[in-house]
Specification:
single chain; two-stranded antiparallel ribbon; TIM Barrel; about 290 residues; binds iron/sulfur cluster
Length: about 290
């Protein structure tokens, strides 16, 4: 049977996917805003466990087309181990079309382009990457363990290996003081990477990490109001110019005050007009008690 070490997270777009937990927790687990895996110690599941779960799921769900590999940075496992898992998945599920997982920029930097090509050829087709901010100041203050250069280099390496990217940013992460820098630098990084998908979430601090976040930030952190979040989103959308292709942009996560979907740059004018409308009618925003990170 499938056994999960809770809590289990997956991107909203993987709601219908088979979730296979190949790692437990996050190998880094030190981003000051993130409480997702604080209760877990990072470990990789054994081949015997993973093989048995694949074989069980292949019997129970033979029509599976998509598999998401949990937990927080499944790409941290060795290329050899990941190739073994991918091989067994595609052999076991005849209709399988896509395998995806979360990854950190450091996972990408630690693998060569040849390794990433081999993973893509073996069926790892989409990576979800939390870039959170393009500002080195904000990245440092939230102890992301990554720089804008590392994020760009890692993501471009994955892209040139043919792996699709779904990147995430967090609105409000720099607070009031760094809002403009956060928006413009994030737009710059997103424009250079030009991921297929870009999601903007909104910062909501869990009680478990609130004090740590405030202390690591190193100076008073002023959380943005809803209207200020909309201002930041507007600045972000204004400055995104994908280096190539188009970006499917979403700000429709459970943490966002209003669901927005767009293709950038095509829908820029519509989104900017919508943001202005929302700023004038904050009563249309989702109440804060209904939002979650
Ligand atoms: S944000 Fe991602 S990398 Fe950072 S601690 Fe959470 S799961 Fe790990």
């Amino acid at each position: 049977m499938l056994t999960y070490v809770e809590p289990l997270y997956r991107p909203p777009s993987e709601a219908d996917s088979l979730i296979l937990q190949v790692t437990i927790g996050c190998s880094y687990n030190r981003c000051s805003f993130c409480s997702m895996y604080r209760s877990k110690r990072y470990e990789e599941r054994s081949w015997d466990e993973i093989k048995a779960e694949i074989e069980y799921a292949a019997e129970e769900y033979p029509s599976t087309r998509r598999v998401f590999l949990a937990d927080g940075d499944a790409l941290n496992i060795s290329t050899e181990y990941m190739l073994k898992i991918l091989d067994h998945l595609y052999r076991s599920f005849p209709k399988l079309e896509r395998v995806s997982c979360y990854a950190m920029p450091k996972n990408l930097l630690q693998k060569s382009e040849q390794e990433l090509v081999a993973l893509r050829d073996a069926g790892l087709k989409l990576l979800y990457i939390g870039i959170e901010s393009g500002s080195d100041t904000v990245l440092r203050k939230v102890t992301k363990g990554a720089t804008s250069k590392g994020i760009i280099d890692g993501c471009l390496k994955a892209k040139s290996a043919g792996i699709q990217l779904s990147c995430m940013l967090i609105l409000g992460l720099g607070g009031r003081k760094y809002s403009m820098e956060h928006a413009i630098a994030s737009a710059r990084v997103a424009s250079i990477i030009a991921p297929e998908y870009l999601a903007a979430l909104t910062l909501l601090l869990d009680d478990l990490v609130r004090d740590e976040f405030m202390s690591k930030f190193g100076e008073p952190f002023e959380q943005l109001s809803d209207v200020e979040v909309l201002d930041e989103l507007k600045m972000l959308v204004e400055h995104i110019e994908p280096r190539d292709g188009k970006i499917i942009f979403r700000a429709n996560h459970a943490s966002n005050p209003y669901p927005i979907k767009a293709v950038l740059p095509d829908d820029r004018a519509r989104v900017l007009a919508l943001i202005d409308e929302l700023k004038a009618r904050p009563d249309r925003l989702k109440p804060s008690y209904l939002r979650r990170f």
